């Protein structure tokens, strides 16, 4: 199984500041035949299901604010929120869909400082 | 708009089975795969398996193999997840999710169904 490890486990950032969350996979999730990274980021608020933010490691889902961006390739990935807003308080998960079992990171809790 | 509506919360005794339903709307049911993911208290999201809603073929996580059955009823446009031989560690929120364009990631999720296993 591919193990997904996020860092940090929790993060406190001031409003308007940048937030950076990292995700590392135990093996590459880059599929060479199509040059796509099978890596997704979700946002989960209390009492709600996860919400898709980023897929293919860097493509923003329709309707997601452009302050959210994803980067990285192979085994190391980053979710960046360029200017933190109050509504961004949530737990963020990375997910690999390179192979089954599909696996998720342990989550990063983002709070306001 | 796309919605996935799941059945309500369940309380079960250890050793029993639970069946959770997931009824999508807003798209053609048979055109997308449905996955099941669970979230135990304080734990990460955990993939259980998926079903091709059109062809009906399934794949399960080895962790749940033998205990989980995922099925669909195309006439009712509904997917089901049944978990048997329940134990306290199966207490969790169970989600269904639509796989986007045969890609592997999930663009829509159900609201979740809390399953509590307690004697």
- Count helical runs of chain A: 0
Largest sheet descriptor of chain A: 7 strands, mixed
Work out the strand percent of chain A.
over 45%
Order of helices and strands of chain A: EEEEEEEEEEEEE
Kindly report how far apart the N and C termini of chain A lie. Answer: 36 Å
User: Unreliable segments of chain B (pLDDT under 50, ≥5 consecutive)?
Assistant: none
Number of DSSP strands of chain A? 13
Overall geometric form of chain B: globular
Based on CA atoms alone, the radius of gyration of chain A comes out at 13 Å
- Largest interface, C-beta within 8 A: A-B, 21 and 21 residues
How much helicity do the residues of chain A have? Answer: under 10%
Strand content of chain B: over 45%
Distance between the termini of chain B: 40 Å
Largest sheet of chain B: 7 strands, mixed
Q: Round the mean pLDDT of chain A to the nearest integer and report it.
A: 97
Number of DSSP-assigned strands of chain B: 11
Supply the number of helical segments of chain B.
Answer: 0
Sequence of secondary-structure elements of chain B: EEEEEEEEEEE
Uncertain stretches of 5 or more adjacent residues of chain A? none
User: Helices and strands of chain A: which structural class?
Assistant: mainly beta
Oligomer: heterodimer
